[in-house]
Amino acid sequence: MGFMDKKKAVKLATASAVAASAFVAANPHASQAATDVATVVSQAKAQFKEAYYTYSHTVTETGKLPNISDVYAAYNKAKQAYANAVAVVNKAGGAKKDAYLADLQATYETYVFKANPKSGEARVATYIDAYNYAVKLDGLRQDLAKAVEAKDLKKAEELYHKISYELKTRTVILDRVYGQSTRDLLRSQFKAEAQKLRDSLVYDITVSMKAREAQDAVKAGNLDKAKAALDQVNQYVSKVTDAFKTELQKAAQDANAAYEAALPFKVESVAVVNAKQIEIKFNKAVDRSTASNKNNYKIQKSSDSSASTLATLDGSADISWSDDGKTVTITTTSGIINKFGVVNDAPFKFIVENIKDKYGKTVDSYSTNLVVKDTVAPTLKEVKATAKSTTTKVTLVFSEPVQASGAIAYVGGQAASVQDGSNPNEIILTTAQALEAGKTYDLTLLNFKDYANNFLQPNPTTKSFTVSSDAVAPTVQDVKVVRDNLIEVTFDKAMDASTFAGYTRVLDLNGNPQGGTITATIKSGTAGKTVRLALGSAVPFNDSGVFSGTLVLGNGIKDVNGNAKSATTHSITLTKDTARPTVAGASYVAAGGQYAGNTYTNGAIVLKFNEDVAKIGSDFRLITAGGEDVTSRLNAGGAAVNNDDNTEVIIPLSSSLSAGTYTLRVGNDVVQDLSTQANRNAAAVTTVTVGASSDSSKPVVNEGSVSAVAATSQTSGTTISLTMTDNVGLDLATVQDVNNYLLNGKPLPSGSYVTIAHGSGSSSSAATNITVTLNIPAKSITKDGQYALNINNIKDKAGNIADPKVANVRLNDDVSPELKTATISSNGLLVLGFSESVNSVGATTPSDFQFVINGVEVATTYNGNIVQFDDGTGTDAGKYVVTFKAKVDKGADNNESTTADNRLYLDVNGNNAFDSGTDILVQTGTTKAVGDVTLDVNLLSALKVKVVNNAAVKDQSTLQNPIQVGTTITVK
């Protein structure tokens, strides 16, 4: 055969082989004489190769895998051809029999099949095995994809392991296929896709497995193994896919909780942080009710015969805890040395006892020796002042708590008052001057010292700072689901809860609104930054008790300074709450003490639950340590939920209790939680310790009592009244400090003052019930509307600080509008701008203004001849646009065509003729047409505008305040 195209040769050979194979298959026992053995062998070998080419040439020519049925058909033909050819050779016999048989076998085993093939052998059979395996692997991949889509974690984990096994142990089948391009195509089309999906779930499956492993280890008491598993859970849970995020986060949370609950509760360390603070670290989160009980901390000096409680030594000390609840910090009111009576560098014993973890385990009594040895001077770390326009507050941040008493500060060369901040390491300076945003001021600090009397160095310290501008929109920092109908949103700044109405929605995955009308309130103790969003109705949970949707926060939501946020959306998952509320503990309010704004003559018991509740029953029993039933001393019918803290039920006492430990039995269905399911409590038992009382109750600012008498004229002024109470007595200095009140986040207007009226039983020496009136001077409120009144830093005589409160009041604008700007527009008109919106132009509007033109003062009676007032539009909306009406005459020669002497003038007296000495000449020599023209103000050599009357121009407020007279603006 001569030279020909390779592909054509293959096709011809294939055709011959097929024909010969058909002949042999039809005549396997034909006579030797009729059969050419060599041809039969050659044709059979061609069929073997054709079976191989069926898959290999398809891949190389199309880049795709062949139809497997075509490969099977060719494979079966090759097997049959081999059997028939062997039969022919054996039948024919002869000298070449063995050679023919060997050739047939070698070719067959290379291209078609061999029992234990080596690389490059049994190509068709190996391909078929590989393809069938790949299809099986892809089936597992598809099943896994469906499990992910259905969020079936159990099924997904099962398939994940099956695919992992296949990829690890069996994909070598693909590697045996002859032909690089075929191997690569099988790998990319089947193995790579399966591996990609499997690998995407590696963190999900690891977290799922390790969370179970941790739970099992906890049950088996192997906490070391549980800890090792949890380390991996906590490392990878943030990386899981969205499909299983909710389920795995809960699994991680439950596993961590189980491990923490199983740990023995212990104190890890106690340390003196500085001369004012002691820090206690626990190995797990504390129960805040017992951790905040000052009787559970004791101090004993070497000279003391017994230990004294913190409640006795410093009943007003502040107790706080870290976000994870594992670190408790005690901040004394005036320093450890002063309150505990210890000596610097002298050891004293510190005891921790009776504190429970959040699972109810009580810590073993722990004691250690502490020493106050503070010789390091405090350092000034930061100076902060923020304002939208002006402020009088400057915050100093130190490396440790410093004493406000005796400290002196100057801001911008003027003395400033020095007060403790809300943070122990902060001091607040209040200036008499208004500090402007963007400006830099000098700061001088003298005699600032820590509670070990180490002075700030150098003394005095000087520093400059710049007031930062607060014109930035608030941003969302965190969205947290509290329960199945309550969401908390934390912002980076204090928010105005009243602006959330109409701009807050919950949508389901189809975009339909759910949850009814949403109510927004500020969460106490968050400086106004955390807003609680309560849903008005239940969302539609799925069969698993889960609702997935979107929280929409619109662009009408504002901070307390009026800065609006951008619209944002946040994915949320609400889980139906089916857990009962549980009793977390109980505490005692001493007889005559005040709690949550009420005075309890005989005392009270505060019953703490693990979540917000509503009271629905009164089944309480009180038993003494000796077993005596003293339930009659409980005013169970008067029990009520604490309005300031809905996790508490306050049970008044009808008669006082003697010191000791009591058992309080709480019956079934006393409370129900506030979830959509209204779950009721189960019966429980807790203890109450009644000891010596100390004043640790905060004064109460009754924000519900806030009312305002808005200004009725520009001379009446404005007053705002509210009531405050305390069980012992308010610190009236803090009540009368105007700096403790803010309107829309700003200090009260200059000249404001505070007056006090005492209610029943209240006096200057024991101010227990007072009405406070904020007196705001006339002409101080610049805008009609709702104002947020912030009340902060109100203290009682023991130093307890009332919770910050916010109330809304409606006030009237009693400030006159002022002429602020007078500018020339691009088309030569005069534009007058004001401090606020004013009324529309009327017939008498021009009479409130006087113009001085080119040095000539024009009487207001002539304004109608030379000016026309119109309301501004577009970018000039809210302003007045003044058009100067001029005239052009024919000049001295009374010849219109000789323009060199034509005059452009303002006809002041309105007689249509130029009168020298009366009218104002603007230009001699003009080409403008003779007659009335609009004057380009730029042609004037000088122009002033004055406000001389206030009969016509008024603002648009309720009081319609007239314009401020006396303002003069030089235009040019």
TrEMBL record:
Pfam families: Big_5, SbsC_C, SbsC_spectrin-like. Residues 59-195 form the SbsC C-terminal domain. The keyword Signal applies. Transmembrane segments: none annotated. Residues 203-263 form the S-layer protein spectrin-like repeat domain. Keywords: Signal. Residues 374-466 form the SbsA Ig-like domain. Residues 1-33 form the signal peptide. The keyword Signal applies. InterPro entries: Cu-Rt/internalin_Ig-like, S-layer_SbsC_C, SbsA_Ig, SbsA_spectrin-like. It comes from the Bacteria. This is SbsC C-terminal domain-containing protein. It comes from Geobacillus proteiniphilus.
